[in-house]
Amino acid sequence: MTVSSQADAVSGPAPEAPIELFRQWYAEAKSSEPNDPDAMALASADASGRPDVRMVLLKHFDQDGFVFYTNFESAKGQQLAANPQAALCFHWKSLRRQVRVRGPVVPVSDSEADAYFATRAKDSQIGAWASRQSRELEGRFALEREIARYAARFALSAVPRPVCWSGYRVRPLSIEFWRDRPFRLHDRTVYRREDLSRPWTVVHLYP
């Protein structure tokens, strides 16, 4: 089944259907999008319900969800600790497609975080130690001083993962696939489930 025919199907989906469809769309985006096909808007809310949004990078996805990495002490980390729900939005302009994801958020395991951190460039690893993410910076020199300090500290050794640096997995309860159509009569196909143990159902929405 092609991407188009799968997106247009009205019969009941297989349990893995939305992730497999995302896999197809993501592969096409990686071949066509000129910059950052893995970029996604991450929306979260603090304990009072005030929303926030920023761009992050998708680092892994599978049937369990969509993974990104950050500093747990950052604004997003504090918001997700207080309110562990999130929404994601991928927008691939070259394809005129969009994917929206909503669901609860859980931290990745230490072994997952360690494995990913080990793949990062050493300068990025040092940056994770040097940056007090989302907190006030008194001047660029303060950041450069911290980078120099940690660069010296780890000059002759591997850089371990900071305890405060790890990842989150957004576990989807809904995934919407949006495709541009003429005259703003867009295709909207939504996969939904009541909870993470339930099978997916599929509906089509008016544009």
Tell me the count of domains.
Answer: 1
Using the coordinates shown, work out and report the CATH topology. Answer: Pnp Oxidase, Chain A
Helix content: 25-40%
Q: What is the CATH H-level superfamily?
A: Electron Transport, Fmn-binding Protein, Chain A
Sheet of most strands: 10 strands, antiparallel
Provide the gyration radius in Å: 19 Å
Percentage beta strand: 25-35%
Put simply, the count of helices is: 6
Mean pLDDT: 92
N/C terminus separation: 24 Å
**Secondary structure category:** alpha+beta
Any idea what the CATH architecture is? Answer: Roll
Order of helices and strands: HHEEEEHEEHHHEEEE
- Shape, principal axes of CA atoms: elongated
Q: Find the count of extended strands (DSSP E, 2+ residues).
A: 10
At the first level of CATH, the class is Mainly Beta
Low-confidence stretches: 1-13
Structure, described:
The protein is an alpha+beta fold and 207 residues long. It has one domain (3-109, 164-204): Roll (Pnp Oxidase, Chain A), CATH 2.30.110. The protein has 6 helices and 10 strands. It has helices at residues 3-8, 17-32, 75-82, 110-119, 122-130, 140-153; strands spanning 39-45, 51-57, 60-62, 65-71, 85-92, 97-107, 165-170, 174-179, 187-192, 201-204. Strands 1, 2, 3, 4, 5, 6, 7, 8, 9 and 10 form a 10-stranded antiparallel beta sheet that branches. Strand 1 (39-45) and strand 2 (51-57) form a beta hairpin. Helix 5 packs across helix 6 (140-153). The longest helix is centred in the N-terminal third of the chain and has 16 residues, at 17-32. Mean pLDDT is 92; it is low at 1-13.
